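=== Structure Prediction Worksheet ===
Name of assembly: unnamed complex
Input type: mixed (protein and possibly other molecules)
Chain count: two
Listed entries:
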Amino acid sequence: MAQPIIPVRTADGRLAPVPPRTTSRWVDVAIFAILGGFTYGLMRTATRWSAPLEPGTQIDLGAIHLPLYAAYSTLRMSIAYVISLVFSLAYAKIAVASRSAERVMIPLLDILQSIPILSFMPAVVLGMAALIPGRTVGLELAAILLIFTSQAWNMAFSFHQSLLTIPRELSEASTVYQLSPWRRFTRLELPFGAISLIANSMMSWAGGWFVLTASEQFPLKNLRLPGLGSYLQAAADAGDLSATLFGLAMLIGVIVLLDQFLWRPLVVWSDRFKFEQSGAADAPSSRVVELLQGSALIEWMNLHVWRPVWLWLDRTFGNAAARTRRFTLPATYRRGGRKAARWGLIGVGVALVLWGVVATIQELAGLPGGQWAHVWLSAGATLTRTVIALAIAAAWTIPAGVAIGFNPKWSYRAQPLVQVAASVPANTVFPILFVVLLSIPGGLNIASVLLMLLGTQWYVLFNVIAGAMSIPSDLREAAVVYQVTGWRRWRTLILPGIFPYLVTGMITATGGAWNASIVSEYVSYKGHKVMTLGLGALIADSADRGDFPLLLAGTLVMAAIVITGNRLVWRRLYTLAEARFRLD
Amino acid sequence: MATITTLPAPSHAGEVLLAAEDVKKYYGDDRSPVLEMVTVELRDGEFVALLGPSGSGKSTLLRILAGLMPPSEGRVLVHGERLDGPNAQVAIVFQSFALFPWLTVLDNVELGLLATDLSPAERRARAEQAIDMIGLAGYEEAFPKELSGGMKQRVGFARALVVHPEILFMDEPFSALDVLTGENLRQELLDLWAEHSIPTRAVLIVTHNIEEAVALADRILVFGANPGHIRVELKGLPQADRRAKNSAHAQLVETIYQIMTNPELDAAELVQQRSMTARGTEPKTGGSRARRYQTLPDVSIDDLTGFVQYLATVGGRGNVHELSRDLQMRADDLMALVEATDLLGLVDLQNRHVLLTPVGQRFADADLDAEKALFRQIALEQISLLRYVVRELETSPTHTLEAERVLDDLEHSFSSEEARRQFETVIDWGRYAELLSYDDSSGELRLDEEHRVPELPT
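=== Predicted Assembly ===
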């Protein structure tokens, strides 16, 4: 019954032949070392968390301290990710279980996804610090909460979508054979959603770095969390270029290591969950997984740790009162109690929403008309920048991505690189580019477009490459045979072929660009602040000055613009892409 | 494969295991039923077949009896007790096998036992026994994607039988397999059943294959469509005649063909004409069976024109049975074609013979333009839904129509799934007739001005 935690099967499902044990000794040692290091880091962090909060935590710029800072940051990311994962699974399950809940929950996700997280940073940090006064744990929780809000939504979306698309007969088989809720979840729902959940986890994790570094960089009454983000900020403040480069190298190193040791193996492992009835041609592979398969330690752990744990879990939860689902009886039989409870719930929901609306209006009412004009002017400026940034991104990534995607050798090499580039949070690179950018004419006004671009173009590039690769070779050959060349080749073959992918990439990039405006229109460097006209700058500045009505107005306007854009432009394009240009 | 000597208890003798009483099922608020007033009993020792064209609600009935969905009206009784959730006495073999691709054969089979109190060792032993019995030994550690279709369905059978179900349900279990594989598996199953190698007390199979029903069942319930209902109940052949290709066998197959190819006739009368014992349950016409539009068979224009042309090449007539064989089509697919061409007046169905009408002959001889013109004319005359759509387009000032509106209207008469099918068929036919165009992305129907028909027949 147990699923081995590390894959030991070949792509076609047979047990892999036991590899020779010649290289496995040092692999075992390495695993041991990693586990040891991890435990140490965990203990170190735990003692720090309960420590009293001291203002002005000093960031040591010595490179020797970098691994510890990296460990702090990674731990924050991991905790936030685990919470996001649990949240996503639960949220999707609830939404599927109840039709009426779904009608509220799924649009809510859409809205949450469009809200700029960074503008909530001051409120969250202050709130959490106040909630657990005197301890750093409050600040830690604030950072984790912010990372969570950047990771959870798309994962919940993906799992919800998976649950909805489970084949009917498989679901019926689970019911007929009376699988308990736990077993239905572990045997059917989780495996079915695994591949898409892991793909979305990778995206979430990449996006999480941005919020993590931003929240570590965020100075509030001189409170600061130690981590890679604060290290980079301190290096920038001190104007220490070598420390900045060291920090950046460490960050990229962590991203690459996690990709190789966590995500790639997970992708390989999850290939078994591909829903197909016949064997696939090319399964993903990972060097690390091949190496680990030879490890006696891993095998021992599979047999003596994971398997017993899994069996115990399955027995405990799986056998627990397999309460079979009963039909809801026709309306006449329905008890009044349930109905009352439902209306009560709806009442509470409506009351909460009303209260929120009233409170918001009250807060906004205090804002003078001139301020509103300023908000809309800023919004216009940022909108212009976003559009320009996206246009530039599309202009260079479409030809480049298609060239890469049409060449199997290049795309094989380029894809992991682009993935890493997309993960590196743009705000950490700003300090390096800053001196150069400020000297170009137009100052930050122009430079912030480039900073936005830096963070968002990779999504587009990544998707265009994937789109170009998805164009079937017989279509390309047909284009050659019928001499469809030049612009006509673009119009009839390439652009329609990559269109769905391009739209997906642009949607992600747009959201990213608005979020990035908060850190790119308002930058602090060597102790002084530089800002330009823009909604991002308005949000960052009002947060800094504690001007909450203005902060609220800016945030709401930004969320409204993003949502409107999604509804009016992107969703329509997406539907069009799905209906007309899907090639499978 | 042993010859059958021991026979199960004669039907109608055993205790009633499972019963549906006045079961009705409808979707949506307008209560257009997919299944109407069905009463069936399943008794100890019986092998019952539910036979009918697609859309006749037989799979729906199976799911209601299995407790996978509640009936809208009426009730299901298990040993006399009302069923209000999944039926614990039942195991199902599915058409698509419904195997978990990420579990091995052994794990898939054990799945059925997880809900029992058995210890892991006992579970494994029983699963291995079932795998052995069904001829899968050696495949325990394989994943479904490594197996052929026949082997996959064996896993499906092993998973169903391992739980020792009181009643075995099969939903078109052999229709996804090639003919020989299906035949082979069917015989093996029949042997297990006849030899009492399995503790199962009754079997219910859903099928659209007449031969299959005759080869297997003690009792055959023939379903009709729109809405789904039981047209007639037939007694199966004695065990000895089921495999033999003798006259009793041929006669029963023939009778059922006749019933199924004449959906409008009273099945009980037909049976009586053929001097068979039968109990007619044909509901009275009228009431909720009346519809605003006739049901368009789910047939594409290509198949439709191809069929008429084929008929012309073979002399303008053909036997349903032979046509099905020569065109290598499933019986119900062929029936849909016959029904569609009959609806258009291109063919005539007499007994089991399809005859090309003079119009049909003209249609087959015409070149593309003439063929389309002819189709346009007869489709408008015969197809009420198409006539309605074109008239609506005519009267609309912009000569356009929202697809939603047509669909909404159709949903008064059909389930939403069937409504969509009807809509797609009428679009397909209307486009071919060059009466209308349809833009899927905007969901808009538009009148084809060039071929406007000035006066519409009513």
